[in-house]
Amino acid sequence: MSDDPVQDLALAFRDGDQEAFVQLVEDLQDRFFRLAYRITHDHDAALDVAQDAFVKIHARIDRWDGHSRFTSWAYRVVTNMAIDLLRKQKRETKAREARALEQPEVVEDKSESSIVAEERALLVNQVKAAIEALPPGQRAIVALRHYEGCTLKEIAEIRGCALGTVKSTLHQAFRSLRRTLGAEVLARAGQVAA
After folding, report:
1. φ, ψ for residue 90, nearest 5 deg
2. What is the number of other CB atoms lying within 10 angstroms of the CB of residue 131?
3. pLDDT at residue number 8
4. pLDDT tens-digit profile of 91-106?
5. Residue 142 contacts residue 170 (beta carbons within 8 Å)
6. Interatomic CA distance for residues 62 and 124, integer angstroms
7. What's the gap between Cα 80 and its chain centre?
8. 129: pLDDT confidence band, cut at 50, 70 and 90?
9. Which of 91, 112, 140 represents a domain boundary (last residue)?
């Protein structure tokens, strides 16, 4: 028994315990969905990716060596499937472009709290649109780092690449976000998030 219950469940499942797989699905389904959604930005696609990832994990559990963290291996399955889905679709839908460019309707309200809420909503929409415009690989690494809280080393393991590649990709993503959003928007977004 380790101090990681997910790891223990995965080992039990790999050894043939089907109930352990049921518990793995219960424990990880929300995390898989969130990660897939951060990459695809599509609710239905994220549900499909999460479900398909469990099917793939069930069928290929023998490919996990048992020595590495199960969550790293499983996150790799999810991120690869989400990226593959985006590549297959090869679409930049007009609806997404319209949403990214839309500005929320401004309702005249002089109260300070509504101005702050309106500014926060505008910033959130700008940042979401900028992240959505990143290439899928960069978007996956940003999602793993900033939404799932993975370390750079864990991301390298999940993505199956060198630590330097993760650092470089993350740097490229943020350089692109700075270019897209501008320093002023990023500074305001940091203040709103704080």
Report:
1. 40, 55
2. 21
3. 93
4. 555 555 555 666 554 4
5. yes
6. 42
7. 11
8. confident
9. 91
